[in-house]
Amino acid sequence: MLRILIVDDEPPARRRLRKLLEPLQASGRVALIEEAADGIEALAKLQQQTFDLLLLDVRMPELDGFEVLERIDPNRRPFVVFTTAHDDYALKAFEAHAIDYLLKPINQHRLLEAVARVEQLQTTAQLREQEERLSKLLDWLEAQQQQAMPGVGPATSYLEQLSVAYRDRILIIPVTRLVSAEIHDGITRLYVLEEEPGSPPRLRQHVVSYTLDQLEARLNPRDFMRVHRSAIIQLRHIRELIPWFSGRYKVKLTGDHEIIASRERSKLLKERLIL
After folding, report:
1. What band does 254 get if pLDDT is binned at 50, 70 and 90?
2. Is 150 exposed, middle or buried (0-12, 13-18, 19+ CB in 10 A)?
3. How far apart are CA 73 and CA 224, in angstroms?
4. Please, are residues 104 and 83 in contact by the beta-carbon 8 Å criterion?
5. H-helix or E-strand containing 20?
6. Environment class of residue 179 by beta-carbon count within 10 Å: exposed (0-12), middle (13-18) or buried (19+)?
7. What is residue 121's predicted lDDT score, i.e. its pLDDT?
8. Share of the chain above pLDDT 70, in %
9. Average of pLDDT values for 215-234?
10. Burial 190-212 (b: 16+ CB within 10 A, else e)
11. Higher model confidence: residue 64 or residue 19?
């Protein structure tokens, strides 16, 4: 019997999936159906209990489906079937590497086919195959993202400070305090260290208008590194490298901030940090 988690930021979409799964629940093939309204809630539920199948929306605020997939604890990782309303380039990747994808509005026959496929794949050897398939998907997506990036010319000088609009003023922030720069839901966010005597280090988020590519071109590559298509980190703020699945590393930064490095970037990061 399957335990299923539906992850979608749209309540009607979650209700539709639950209704389409009712015949499986009535026949005893599905033991539990839970819901999460975003990626953060999904990760919390995945830590609290075990699921066999994740019905995962692709486009969501804060964490999209790909980012959720990268953050799932490998010891608690279920099978994944993607759901999306957008018939774009990613669907070809899903066809090649994912268990399945379902295009909204979800067709019940296609959903039941996907569930049946997951039931057939619940063996040790096939679980390893699924992990490799997910790894290939993530690598493919990163390669596509890198190819789509516009070229940038060499910078004449590297930034020593950043200007950030904050309420009714402009803050001047030394780049030494920049822990990471990340894109979430199409928005560039800076994670900046704020230290007060006698208090543990904490991070403050700042939303900026420039892109990660523009920022990367102006940061000193000796101090900063792109560890993912949507994240740049400052090397001096790394506190731990935690092995993750399929050759990736979870990077723990100052202020207990965490980022999952891509597989290829994890190799480069390890080479730079470990002599």
Report:
1. very high
2. exposed
3. 26
4. yes
5. helix 11-20
6. buried
7. 79
8. 85
9. 93
10. bbbbeeeeeeeeebbebebeeeb
11. 19
- State how far the alpha carbon of 9 is from the alpha carbons of 39, 52, 68, 86, in Å: 9, 21, 13, 15
Residue 125 has pLDDT above 70, yes or no: no
pLDDT digits (tens, 9 = 90+) for 167-188: 778 888 999 999 999 998 788 9
Assess contact for 17 and 43: CB atoms under 8 A.
Answer: no
**Confidence band (pLDDT; 50, 70, 90) for 163?**
confident
Q: Is 68 helix (H, G, I), strand (E, B) or coil?
A: helix
Contacts of 176 by beta carbon, 8 Å cutoff, 6+ apart: 234, 236
Min mean pLDDT across 38-42, 130-134, 262-266 is at 130-134
Number of Cβ atoms within 10 Å of the Cβ of 90: 21
Q: Are strands 178-184 and 187-194 parallel, antiparallel or unpaired?
A: antiparallel
One DSSP character per residue, 197-240 reads TTS--EEEEEEESS-HHHHHHHS-TTTEEEEETTEEEEGGGEEE
Helix axes 11-20, 108-120, angle to 10 degrees: 70
- Structural domains of the chain, ranges and CATH numbers in brackets: 2-148 (3.40.50.2300), 161-273 (2.40.50.1020)
Closest to 204 (Cα-Cα) out of 167, 152, 241, 239: 167
| Token pair in block for residue 221 | 């590559």
Separation of alpha carbons 197 and 115, rounded Å: 55
